[in-house]
From TrEMBL:
Residues 25-152 form the Pyridoxamine 5'-phosphate oxidase N-terminal domain. This is Pyridoxamine 5'-phosphate oxidase N-terminal domain-containing protein. Keywords: Oxidoreductase. Pfam families: PNPOx_N (PF01243). The keyword Transcription regulation does not apply. InterPro entries: F420H2_bilvrd_red/Heme_oxyg, Pyridox_Oxase_N, Split_barrel_FMN-bd. GO terms for molecular function: coenzyme F420 binding; oxidoreductase activity, acting on the CH-CH group of donors. GO terms for cellular component: cytosol. It comes from the Bacteria.
């Protein structure tokens, strides 16, 4: 997982004349603290599939888990392209963030243990996973695949004083 700083630019075509680019630190803070993300994958027939989930930002990537038979996992077996978005439904304030990249299944035990700890910490113990056989396991008895998305591009949409920022990796 890379930890490089992106090239950050504002797109004046879609921004208020007085808007400035959202700093990477502010965008990253949204990724680190968001409680809910929407993941969009591509079905075999080319149609999009979107669903909410929890995720964690760690070591320059965003990570999420899913059951092996859930639609998003089925889609990712054929097409790794993914969007993860978060933000708020307010028009006058806030920051919406969209992460573009490819979802890669994470099976490395050391990485999974760091991710399990990140979930536990972020959610004050509400999400606890055991790591074994390259998956997360939870107390309800189910297993979950873990995917990591190292972003190729992150878009940040500032509201109020509207700004369209691109963080290119």
């Amino acid at each position: 997982m890379k930890n490089t700083e992106p090239v950050t630019t504002i797109d004046p075509r879609f921004s208020d004349p007085s808007a400035v680019a959202t700093p990477w630190e502010e965008t990253r803070r949204v990724l680190e603290t968001a409680e809910l993300f929407w993941v969009t994958t591509v079905r075999a027939n080319g149609r999009p599939h979107a669903t909410p989930l929890v995720a964690v930002w760690l070591e320059g990537a965003i990570h999420f888990s899913t059951g092996a038979d859930e639609q998003k996992a089925v889609n990712l077996r054929e097409n790794s392209h993914v969007l993860l978005s978060t933000g708020c439904n307010s028009w006058e304030s806030g920051l919406d963030v969209v992460v573009e990249g490819d979802a890669v299944q994470t099976t490395d035990e050391a990485t999974l243990k760091r991710l399990a700890e990140a979930w536990t910490t972020k959610w004050n113990g509400q999400w606890q996973f055991e790591v074994r056989d390259g998956c997360f396991y939870h107390e309800a008895g189910g297993s979950a695949l873990v995917f990591s998305v190292t972003p190729t591009k992150i878009l940040a949409f500032a509201k109020g004083n509207f700004g369209y920022t691109r963080h290119q990796f």
